[in-house]
Structures are given as structure tokens and as C-alpha cells.
Amino acid sequence: MVRIGAHEAPHPHRKGTALTSSSGASRRQVLAVAAAAATAPLLAGAPARAAEAKGPKTWDLTVLGTSDTHGNVYNWDYYKDAEYDDSRHNDVGVAKLATLVNQIRAERAGKATLVLDAGDTIQGTPLATYYAKQEPITVTGETHPMANAMNVLRYDAVTLGNHEFNYGLPLLAKWIEQLGFPALAANALNEKTGRPAYLPYVIKKVRLGGADSPTINVGILGLTNPGSAIWDKANVEGRLIFADMIETAAKWVPIMRERGADLVIISAHGGDSGTSSYGPELPIENPVALIAQQVPGIDAILFGHAHAEVVEKFVTNTVTGEQVLTAEPSKWGQRLTRMDFTVQKVRGRWKVLAKGATMLNTNTVVEDPAVLAAVRGQHTRTVDYVNTVVAQSSQELSAAESRYKDTPILDFINHVQTEVVTTALAGTAYAALPVLSIAAPFSRTAVFSQGDVRIRDVAGLYVFDNTLEAVVFTGAEVRAYLEYSAKYFRTLAVGAPVDPATISDPAVPDYNYDVISGLDYDIDISAPVGQRITRLVLPGIDTPVADDAQFVIAVNNYRRSGGGNFPGIVKTQVYNQQQEIRQLLIDWAQAKGVIDPADFFVPNWKLVREGVPVF
């Protein structure tokens, strides 16, 4: 098994004004610098400490963790063409993370500091999409922006997340080849051989202090998400299988210990809830707490996938009684996890005396200029591309109410999907079937302003890199699908106040609420889940949809593959030309020149309570 043993000297703290993609640092950044300087000891965090007793010397080790960076390098919102900001004034990007990492490396000069990432790295922003689709690195040979940024930061290892498989295995392989550190995924197996398709783990020989200090072997095991078998079925089927994360940890942790790992850290792309967004046909999507409970020999788990902020959570291992430290650093580079360990060599073996975790906020620092410089040209090209005008909008179209009202901007997606599938099926055995279309309100902030519509506006509406597929549904399957989708809403009795901000069940994300065009239907939110579709009729004639009626359904590949566990949708496609939906929307807009709701808006669904419209 590969061992990576070179001790890396601490990176000196870089000084000077950080660059941004606008001219100079923003006022918020300048204020953040002052705040950071005033609270430097707090920013750095305090190492976990154990009582110093007579006997062997204690040493400390720091492990820094990131996850779900999702293609964010600059603190930049490509959809708004402005510095990133949100209601909590979070910042994003590897450049911000690098500044915090370099501060801690400087603080700990001469001491052991490792940096890990728990996955979902090369998808999520127009920057990442551009180098997968518009100028793919597999064609140009150019280094991916996330490799450029992460190499400057000098990670020690990254785990593959499920979104690493979005663009196919060749692009993933090219990105891994460009990294200056290992990419791990112990449970992603070659389907033909059953052996790991990627490096399962590394053991790093780390010097704990100066040149004469002792060394400790840190084992790092990477676990990716089994859901990729569903979500990226087109890319991995027949090539990769994804083993259970718990069973994989149970297999490899003892091997790592046998091969000399004194400290074992898992970098896992899965949440800790023990639940899955899909059915029982695959291993658990979010098993981190179960791994900590069931697999002995683990000191800590850095995890991601759920985009949650878990500062420090201890889980008791039921076999050994030991406490396993777990932490998740939010998303997009908004947070940096810091894990600190105090260790001591007792009778020739390293023992962890204390451990703990803190969370650092990247909005307290400026961007690292070396990271910005490494990606500046690629960032600029992406900004220029997304600002390309593709059409004129006849009026402002907003997605703000698309979750609970039928809106033109969501009908725009459904109209294009319907048109593409209808055209493709002409002259086939399915040509006579009505084509319905499914879309979800991915964004609450997307808007086409009256006038120029740019690529970034379309990308802001359709934020995922999904492709278009189609299957055949019966009327009964359409009803079951809509009933499942309608669980998105809270149950609100007749007369109860309705607040759009709280109308949905927080356990169901917006992207798992689908609306269907081509049929008219009502959703009664005063009725129990499973009994809410009170009216489902053919458009314009109020004839109820028969259970045995047949329809073609245009749907994205994520949903058709089982994402969200919607009923009936996982079946053989009658259309699948691997066309990206976002690009289809751009192409339609460019061809028409004008986006006018009169061309596609057909109000066909509404929320009701006992037949009375809610809005």
C-alpha cells in the first residue's frame, strides 16, 4: 500500500493585500481583516490539552478539514456577477480557506499540521462547469481550476464525493492526475475485479516537532458516497460499484493499524443521520455516526455531503468505549474545521490523550493572493462566458414564488423539455402519446430581468448539470408521483394562516419538489400526505386522467435514476440523448431571441384547501 511519508515544512503566512475579482478588497473584507487581527488568538484556536504529568513528553497534532467546496475558488457569485454574500454574510472559496490554513501553519511553525478534504470538489459553479463542458480539461489538457487552487493550498489528501462522478470517469481521472496529493475512495470498486478503483488510504509519516522530534504515522481513509450508483448511473454503470461505507471502514481500519497507522482519521463523503434519500436498494447514504459507533480503531472522522455545520460531535464506539471525534465544515469553503490531538508515546505506542474540534469562519479573512493568481485567468474566462447575452425577456420573470405558485419561469423549463422530447419522438412508436414534463424549483432567487438575459441568468435558474431523459408513465403512476411530491408541503388546516416562508416541510429540500406540466391538478395542503391530489384532469376539458392512460414524461437524469426516491420513475428511457438541460434552455433562448411567457406559460396547478385556492 502506498505510504506518503515526506514531511512538509510549514507554509509561511503570506502578507499583503488580497486580490479580488473586482478592483481591490471590498469594505466588508477590509473590516474583516481588522477584526481578524484583533482576535488572532481566537482565530487560531487552542490545541487540545492534556494534563502534563511526570513521564513522557506530550505532543500535539492539528488536522484541518474542508468539504463540499463545489468549484468555489474566488469569493464570487457567478450568477449575480458580484462578490458572494448571503443573509449571514458568509464568504466562499478555496482562496479564503487558504488564508486560514496559512495562518494556522504559521502559528504552528515546526509542528505537525495536515489538511484534508471530504469531497464534492469539481462541480457546483459555472467555473467548474466551464472546464468540464465548454473547455473540458480532457480535450485541452489544461489544469482544472480546482487542481490549481488546491495544489497551492497544499492539501494532504482529498476524498472523492458523489459529484466528482458527474462529468464521467475520464475527466475525473484527468483531475486526479493533476493533483499534487492523493485522491481517496476505498469503497469505489472496479466492477470487473472487485478491487478498489482508487487509492483507499494513505499513511503519512509526520514529524511532530523539529528535526529531532519523534514521528507519528497518520492513516487517512477515504470513503465516497454509494448514491453515485444512482445519481451518476450513466457514468458508472458497468464500471464501478460502491460498497457499504460501514463495511468498508471495518475492512480497512484494521489493515491500516496493522500496517503502522498510529492515528486513524476517516475522510467520509456522507452525513451522520443514518438516513438515505433513496430506497433500501443501496447502502446508507449518511452513515458517519454508525461508522463511529460500530468500527473500532477510528480516532476522528471529517465528513461532508450534508452541507451542515457540525463543529464538534463525539460518538461512543460500542466495541471499545472510545470517543470518536466527528466534524463537518459546512459547504463551499464557508468554514474550516480544526481538529487538535494531544498524543504521548507510552511503552512504545502512541496514545491519544485529548482531542477536540473548533470551527473557523472564512468571512474573517481576505483571499489568499497566490490562490487567486493561480486561477485568475480561468475565473476571468468564466465571468466573460456567463455574461454572454442569449436573449431578451419581454418582462421580469422570477422564481421567488415557484415553490407554491405556478410561475412562467418554471414553465419555461418544462416547455423546452417538452418541445425537445416531442421533436425527438416524432415518427417513433411513442409519437402519439402526450408529453408531460417535470421540473423542480432549484432556486428561490433566480430572475430574468426585463431586457437582457445572460447565460448566468439561465444557469442561476437551472443550477445542476442534469441531462434530459424521458420515460413512459401511466395515469396511476402520474398520480402516485404527484402525491409523493406533495409531501413537500406542511399540513395546514382550513383557516390556518399560510406563510410562504414556512409552507414547506424543512426535511424536504426544494429540489425534491417537482411540478408537472401538461395536466391540470390541485394539491390540497389541508389533506394528509398521500391524499392531496384532489383533481387530476386532462388540460382544458376537466376529464379525469384514467389510471391506464399513457404519457411520455420528460425528466432529468438525476430524478430518473432514482434521486429523491420518487415512485415509478426508475425505468427504461424512451429518450436519452445525453443533452444537458441548461444548454437546451440556452439554445432555445438564443434561437428564439425573445423569452415571452405568452409562448409557454400555461397555469395548470395550484394549492387548495377543500377546493379553495390558497393563493
TrEMBL record:
Biological processes, Gene Ontology terms: nucleotide catabolic process
Q: Which GO terms describe its cellular component?
A: outer membrane-bounded periplasmic space
Q: Which family does it belong to?
A: Belongs to the 5'-nucleotidase family.
The listed locations are:
Cell envelope
One of the entry's Gene Ontology molecular-function terms is: nucleotide binding
Catalytic activity field: a nucleoside 2',3'-cyclic phosphate + H2O = a nucleoside 3'-phosphate + H(+); a ribonucleoside 3'-phosphate + H2O = a ribonucleoside + phosphate
| Keyword Transferase part of the UniProt annotation | no
Q: What is this protein called?
A: 2',3'-cyclic-nucleotide 2'-phosphodiesterase / 3'-nucleotidase
Identify the residues that the record assigns to the 5'-Nucleotidase C-terminal domain, covering every copy.
389-567
PANTHER family with a match to the protein in the record: 2',3'-CYCLIC-NUCLEOTIDE 2'-PHOSPHODIESTERASE_3'-NUCLEOTIDASE, 5'-NUCLEOTIDASE-RELATED
Cofactor(s) demanded:
a divalent metal cation
SUPFAM superfamilies recorded for this chain?
5'-nucleotidase (syn. UDP-sugar hydrolase), C-terminal domain, Metallo-dependent phosphatases
What CDD domains does the record point to?
A: MPP_CpdB_N
Which residues does the annotated region (Disordered) include? 1-23
